[in-house]
Amino acid sequence: MAERPRISRWREHFLWGMLLLYGLARILQLYAGRASTLLIVVLHVVPPALFALAHGSALYRAKGISVFTFFCLGFGTLAESVSLRTGFPFGHYYFTDLMGPKIFQLPVLLALAYLGIGYVAWILALLILGQVDKPLRGIRLLASPLLASLIMTAWDLSMEPAWSTLDRAWIWRDGGAYFGTPVSNFFGWYLTALLYYQAFALYCRASPTPAASLPSSFWHPAILFYGVCALGNLLILKGPVASPVVADAAGHRWLTAHILANCALISLFVMAPFALLAQMKVCKRTVKALPAVAAP
Predict the structure, then answer these.
(1) pLDDT digit string (tens) for 256-276?
(2) What's the whole-model pTM score?
(3) Closest CA to 127 of 144, 139, 111, 108
């Protein structure tokens, strides 16, 4: 039996390095009063984006991950820009200076956030559905984007009230029922994600990936990235609290403890199961790949 090709050592080290940097970002949230806010934001966004480029170039080659990046950043930036001006599809909001420099009211770092977690959510969907080494045709062409969009939206559910209502990285002008966030935001997230995932799925239909030849260890960092993201939302329960009560832009008051508990619950009962299901699928693939032992 021919030995499966291995991922280059530099790429493997780079992937784990980006994961560690992202883990550092989640830990630094516990020291938000002492660590640079911009540094925390950068470490939340840049390592996942670089991880996506390095991991995706091994799976889809440079052309494939470039196409994914184009669709992801293109649809994401377009949706944000339109919503900032019209309120569709997310709602009416504006960004503060917390997320750094802006171009036409849109923070540069925000676009990268779509790429990093967006790619990881796509990989988890493929693993859960058992489609990493199958052509995306027929029902698979629809199933993967639908599930990936759900995994991506679960991430937004877990972090949205903390970043907006508590940290005020962006302000919802009319507040909202979900701890100061309008429900339309999550339908907008799902729709936006579905558009760029579906576009990429159509691209993949004619471009099969070499996933069957990749070792099982290749998938672990991507699964852990999503898992660390969920774990980070549990850590913020122990982080510094500026005020026990916060008010959204509409004047509605929310208990900080309730917002943090909600983020933790979504992470524990929605995000974590997605990561666990993906890991179970990888374990199953590993078992199937083991050579049969001849009977004595």
Answers:
(1) 999 999 999 999 999 999 999
(2) 0.93
(3) 144
